Amino acid sequence: MHQAVLRINSNTPYERATAGSDARIELWCNNHCDLLSVDGRVGEEVFDHIEETVGVYNELRGEHGRVIVTGACLKAHSEHNIEPYLESNNCLIVPPIRYEGGTKRVRVLASRPEDLTNFYAEITETYEVHVESKREITEVFADQPVMSLQALLPTLSPRQREIFTLAHERGYYEIPRETTTTELADEVGIQRRTLEHHLRRTEEKLADAFVELL
User: Fold this and answer.
1) Which of 12, 22, 98, 192 has its CA 20 to 30 A from that of 161?
2) pTM for the whole thing?
3) H-type helices in the chain, by residue range?
4) CA 59, CA 37: separation in Å to the nearest integer?
5) Residue 91 and residue 110 in contact, taking contact as beta carbons nearer than 8 Å
6) Backbone angles phi, psi at 209, to 5 degrees
7) How far apart (Å, rounded) are the C-alpha atoms in residues 165 and 167?
8) How far apart are CA 168 and CA 163, in angstroms?
């Protein structure tokens, strides 16, 4: 099997709600209803959109986000579905669909690499698409077929991923450290405290994920 992780700009309410922030929305489609997990602060507009479009069947609210069960499937009410492209090219999505950084992030699976190529060629005729990664799947986990180590890692916002990768490349995690948060912040073009917040949030997510595997 072959997998590609794509970022698609399709201007949905969920993409607009996560633009310019660390917020993330994950969506699991169940045909008769959808499950949405909202992590971080997003504007009330996205919740109003869900309520007006299909209604909310159930909802949980917490300090850092919400979990919503919709009254009906949102797909039937969206103008930006990628399912026709998937079906015509024998591809499928491995849920959830993630909305972050103002884009839709999807993991697409195909039996043949040419199916992924054809899917990409078709969808780029309508949307702006960025290929985040592409690989062949050669192993499975007993309880999570087609899942890789990447799938077990927490989802980072584009900004968190950028800053953490830069910190690693510049030797921030070396002993002794080869750079400082002030130098990293200057390179990215943000305040030191903002950069340190991104790093701490990323480190917290990674620690929470890995402790479950110990």
Assistant:
1) 12
2) 0.64
3) 13-18, 44-53, 83-88, 113-123, 149-152, 158-169, 181-188, 192-211
4) 10
5) yes
6) -70, -45
7) 5
8) 9
